[in-house]
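Illustration 12: Solute-binding protein family 5 domain-containing protein.
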Amino acid sequence: MQQPTGQSIRQKDGQPLTLDLSFSGKNNVDKAIAEAIQADLKAVGIDLKLLGEEEQSWSDRQTSGEFNLIFNDTWGPPYEPQAMVSSMRKPSHADYEAQSGLPMKAEIDQNIGKVLLSTDETARQQLYRDILTSLHEQAVYLPISYSTNIAVLHKNLSGFEFMPQANQVPLSKLSKS
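Figure caption equivalent — predicted structure in token form:
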């Protein structure tokens, strides 16, 4: 890749180095992160087109694999890591599409099958290590952030605590102060 003198975007054979980053257009946090990534990539000569899309279009893009970069969240505890790696074997998930060109994709999928069936904790740890190391070495994922829950409560309420799942609200623990 060459960066022509006086031009900010790298080129190869006259074609600019352009990637797209798809995200849900209604997610302001992802939009802000996308804009920061766009600025960082521009500084090194990569043109990043931001695709803030309607939720269904964004979801369809994950399934079809029509993306260069795309946001993805994990479910968190108690579903991890098994839910995340299990979805990596399904063509309807962005993880599968992101990994589809890897030369060791079949081996990764085989190890996922093994780890999901194994009851040997030592073997499971090694299999997860192998899976995640392969993905790390291939730079498939960019672990850039995590979301934080926010709660706004009336001053007369007490007993609120955050739960492992973002959509869980412990209403039974709330009481008037």
